[in-house]
């Protein structure tokens, strides 16, 4: 064991390592003795004991395999849900940063791999649960870190749900109705068929056809310029042009209801086809509207697909800069 580079394993670290590395241990049963160890251990002060517990959980989340990551989250959730007031643990900046990385799915573990979706969803559910619990505690500084983390995660998933709702709405463009405000036609007295004054409306129709073709071309061009890996729904310019093209098509549909013959009919049909083509391309480049980011847990997650090893995962070989005087630093393996 190197001086200051290898953290000495106290009963706290050993217990957490043991109970999260195997599902043979019931976390609820082991919790009481672990809490007692943190409160009464003589290796460090009470605050340092919480630091060590936070560090052990964080390292399992960062370096652990799938089983260890899941059980580390479950253990932390037990601390919070049982009302254990470990203010140092709940405000540990490194632990909160790791939880945010998992919940927002914004980073990787020590091996450079994205977290399994089951772990991400479980983390989100726990974080939002802690957020509600922390809110009920009033101005307690004990849960301040968890409260701020919950706000961040809640904002992200609320925005995603809103964006998905808007995306689903946009993808119903083929069901758009004609814009009745474009022209209020007086029906034929005998047959009730809407009539249009072609002399007054002709110039407007010509302009609409021209604008529609230009709008469809503009939308197609913006889709061609999308950066690699960016969805059309994520691009503000493409989305703005999509909305414009959709509104333009509703006007074209209105005139198609009124113009049944003559020089404009073929041009209106062509304009509609070009707009549909551009709108459809935007739709396809928007990707599937799925529920990957929904926070409701599902029994269909691929929890059984991976072979969950019960041995501790190896630390990433990527060199990092550490403070060797920090006994709780990431350079120390559990």
Category by helix and strand content: mainly alpha
Query: In the CATH classification, which architecture of the largest domain applies?
Result: Alpha Horseshoe
The low-pLDDT segments are 1-5, 189-193, 291-322
End-to-end distance, in Å? 13 Å
- Which fold name corresponds to the CATH topology of the largest domain? Serine Threonine Protein Phosphatase 5, Tetratricopeptide repeat
What attributes does this structure have?
single chain, 334 residues, mainly alpha, Serine Threonine Protein Phosphatase 5, Tetratricopeptide repeat, Methane Monooxygenase Hydroxylase, Chain G, domain 1, 2 domains, two-stranded antiparallel sheet, 58% helix, disordered N terminus, LAFE_0G01266g1_1
What does this 3D model show about the protein?
This protein is mostly helical and 334 residues long. It folds into two domains: 11-163, Serine Threonine Protein Phosphatase 5, Tetratricopeptide repeat (Alpha Horseshoe), CATH 1.25.40; 177-285, Methane Monooxygenase Hydroxylase, Chain G, domain 1 (Up-down Bundle), CATH 1.20.58. The protein contains eleven helices and two strands; from the N terminus they run H-H-H-H-H-H-H-H-E-E-H-H-H. The protein has helices spanning 11-20, 27-40, 46-63, 66-81, 87-90, 93-103, 117-136, 144-170, 198-224, 236-258, 263-285, and strands at residues 186-187, 194-195. A two-stranded antiparallel sheet has the order 1-2. The longest helix is centred in the middle third of the chain and has 27 residues, at 144-170. Residues 1-5, 189-193 and 291-322 have low confidence and may be disordered. GO terms for molecular function: phosphatidylinositol binding; ubiquitin binding. Residues 15-132 form the VHS domain.
């Amino acid at each position: 064991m190197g001086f200051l580079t290898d953290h000495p394993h106290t009963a706290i670290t050993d217990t957490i390592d043991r109970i999260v590395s195997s599902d043979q241990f019931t976390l609820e049963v082991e919790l009481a003795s672990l809490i007692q160890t943190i409160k009464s251990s003589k290796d460090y002060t009470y605050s340092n004991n919480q630091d060590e517990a936070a560090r052990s959980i964080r390292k399992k989340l960062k370096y652990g395999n799938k089983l260890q990551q899941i059980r580390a989250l479950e253990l932390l959730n037990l601390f919070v849900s049982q009302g254990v007031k470990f203010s140092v643990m709940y405000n540990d900046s490194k632990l909160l940063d790791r939880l945010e990385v998992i919940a927002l799915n914004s980073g990787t573990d020590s091996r450079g791999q994205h977290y399994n979706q089951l772990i991400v969803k479980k983390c989100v559910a726990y974080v939002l649960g802690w957020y509600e619990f922390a809110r009920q505690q009033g101005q307690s500084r004990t849960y301040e870190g968890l409260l701020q983390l919950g706000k961040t995660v809640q904002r992200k998933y609320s925005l995603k749900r809103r964006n998905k709702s808007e995306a689903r709405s946009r993808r119903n463009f083929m069901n758009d109705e004609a814009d009745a405000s474009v022209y209020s036609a007086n029906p034929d007295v005998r047959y009730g068929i809407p009539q249009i004054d072609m002399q007054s409306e002709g110039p407007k129709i010509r302009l609409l056809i021209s604008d529609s073709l230009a709008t469809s071309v503009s939308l197609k061009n913006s889709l061609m310029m999308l950066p690699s890996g960016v969805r059309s729904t994520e691009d503000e310019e493409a989305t703005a042009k999509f909305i414009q093209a959709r509104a333009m098509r509703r006007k074209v549909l209105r005139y198609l209801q009124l113009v049944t013959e003559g020089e404009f009919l073929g041009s209106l049909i062509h304009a509609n086809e070009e707009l549909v083509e551009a709108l459809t391309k935007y739709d396809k480049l928007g990707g599937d509207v799925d529920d990957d980011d929904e926070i409701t847990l599902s029994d269909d997650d691929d929890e059984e697909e991976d072979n969950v090893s019960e041995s501790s995962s190896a630390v990433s070989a990527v060199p990092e800069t550490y403070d060797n005087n920090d006994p709780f630093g990431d350079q120390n393996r559990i």
